[in-house]
UniProtKB/TrEMBL annotation:
<dbReference type="InterPro" id="IPR036397">
    <property type="entry name" value="RNaseH_sf"/>
</dbReference>
<dbReference type="GO" id="GO:0003676">
    <property type="term" value="F:nucleic acid binding"/>
</dbReference>
<protein>
    <recommendedName>
        <fullName>Tc1-like transposase DDE domain-containing protein</fullName>
    </recommendedName>
</protein>
<dbReference type="InterPro" id="IPR038717">
    <property type="entry name" value="Tc1-like_DDE_dom"/>
</dbReference>
<dbReference type="Pfam" id="PF13358">
    <property type="entry name" value="DDE_3"/>
</dbReference>
<feature type="domain" description="Tc1-like transposase DDE">
    <location>
        <begin position="19"/>
        <end position="153"/>
    </location>
</feature>
Length: 189
C-alpha cells in the first residue's frame, strides 16, 4: 500500500521523466574484483597465478537522468556527508532547473548522508528543486540501482584493470538508451 502511494505521489509531482535526477553512491574494492574461477579440460586442475593486492575501496557518486549518467565523481574511500554536499553544490546544482523544469526532481535513498538539513536547503531553497526520498527497502524504484548493475558488469569484464579510468569508462557507458530501460523498469515511463 505504501509503495503504491509513493508511486502515485511521484506521478503527481513528475509530469515528464526528464525531470528526474537519481543520485546514489556505490563502492568497489579492488581485491574483490579479482576473477576467482577458471576453465580447464576435465581432469586438469585449474591453477591461477595472480599478484596479491590489498583491497582499496573506491566510491562512485553518479547522477542518472533519462539522458544517462550526466556527471559522476570517483572518491578514494567512502562518501561522507561533506563529499556528498560538495558534489551537489559543485556538480549537480549547476545542471538543475527550478521545479517543474527538466532536471528539477532529485531522487535519493534515505541514507544518513542524504538526509541532512543542509542538503534539503541546498536542493529546495537554493536550487528551487524538489527533493524526494525513496521508501525504505525500495531500491527497485531507483533507476540508478540498475545502472550500478551495468557498471559492475562492465567492471567485471575489466577485472584485471585496476586504474580509476576503467570506472570512468564504466560510468560513460551508461547512455540514454540504457537509461531509458532503467527508467521504464522502475515505473517512471
Amino acid at each position: 500500500m505504501e509503495r503504491m502511494l509513493f508511486m502515485n505521489e511521484m506521478a503527481d509531482i513528475m509530469t515528464n521523466p526528464d525531470q528526474l535526477m537519481c543520485i546514489d553512491e556505490a563502492h568497489r574494492n579492488w581485491r574483490t574484483s579479482v576473477q576467482k574461477k577458471g576453465h580447464t579440460p576435465i581432469g586438469i586442475c585449474c591453477v591461477s597465478h595472480r599478484h596479491f593486492m590489498r583491497g582499496q575501496r573506491v566510491s562512485i557518486l553518479p547522477v542518472l537522468t533519462i539522458d544517462g549518467i550526466i556527471v559522476h565523481d570517483i572518491i578514494p574511500g567512502s562518501v561522507t556527508s561533506l563529499h556528498f554536499s560538495e558534489f551537489l553544490w559543485e556538480c549537480v546544482i549547476p545542471l538543475t532547473n527550478p521545479y517543474p523544469g527538466p532536471r528539477s526532481i532529485l531522487l535519493l535513498d534515505n541514507c544518513n548522508i542524504h538526509c541532512a538539513e543542509e542538503i534539503r536547503a541546498l536542493v529546495e531553497d537554493d536550487a528551487q528543486c524538489k527533493l524526494v526520498f525513496l521508501l525504505p527497502y525500495s531500491p527497485d524504484y531507483n533507476p540508478i540501482e540498475q545502472a550500478f548493475s551495468a557498471i559492475k558488469a562492465f567492471l567485471c569484464c575489466s577485472w584485471d584493470d585496476f586504474s580509476l579510468s576503467v570506472i570512468d569508462r564504466a560510468c560513460h557507458s551508461i547512455m540514454a538508451s540504457k537509461a531509458w530501460g532503467f527508467f521504464c523498469s522502475s515505473g517512471y515511463i
